[in-house]
Write a structure and sequence with these properties.
By secondary structure, the chain is of the alpha+beta class. It contains 3 helices and 8 strands. The longest helix is centred in the N-terminal third of the chain and has 22 residues, at about 5-25.
């Protein structure tokens, strides 16, 4: 085989490998933009977690998280470099900064909380009700309960 043919085969093989592995890279959606509304107390932090897939959501293993100091009744939060897929969000307004959702003796939350798609009025929102698709830039709004 001539050197020219060998070089052509090498270029073809390299291009094929690059295309193959390039197509295996996860698709990236630039950002998920979230507006958190109905913050009742201007103190503490919002603990915001985005979960990829129902298993991670149910096991409380976040894909990304942010902690935002509460300074107003509504906050805009952006998650960058989010892979395309199904997600759900959980929010706790940790107004006493103890890094957990405080409840009363019968388990009713004493601090604000919320879920994507604004579920959770009668207990934690299940995955099937909280999930949403990220394909491109995604804009959401969650009102705290």
């Amino acid at each position: 085989m001539s050197q020219l043919k060998m070089k052509q085969h090498l270029v073809t093989a390299t291009t094929t490998i690059a295309l193959l592995f390039g197509s295996m890279a996860p698709a990236i959606a630039d950002e998920v933009t979230l507006t958190v509304k109905d913050i009742r107390r201007l103190q503490g932090h919002l603990l915001i977690s985005i979960f990829k897939g129902d298993e991670n959501y149910n096991k409380n293993i976040p894909y990304k998280s942010q902690k935002v100091m509460v300074t107003k009744e509504e906050h805009l939060v952006i998650f960058n470099d989010v892979e395309a897929g199904e997600y759900a969000i959980k929010i706790i307004h940790d107004d006493n900064d103890n890094n957990k959702l405080d409840t009363n003796l019968v388990g009713i939350p004493k601090e604000g909380y919320g879920f994507s798609n604004n579920g959770g009025a009668f207990g934690p929102s299940p995955w099937r009700e909280a999930k949403f698709d990220v394909k491109d830039n995604t804009v959401l709004s969650i009102s705290l309960l």
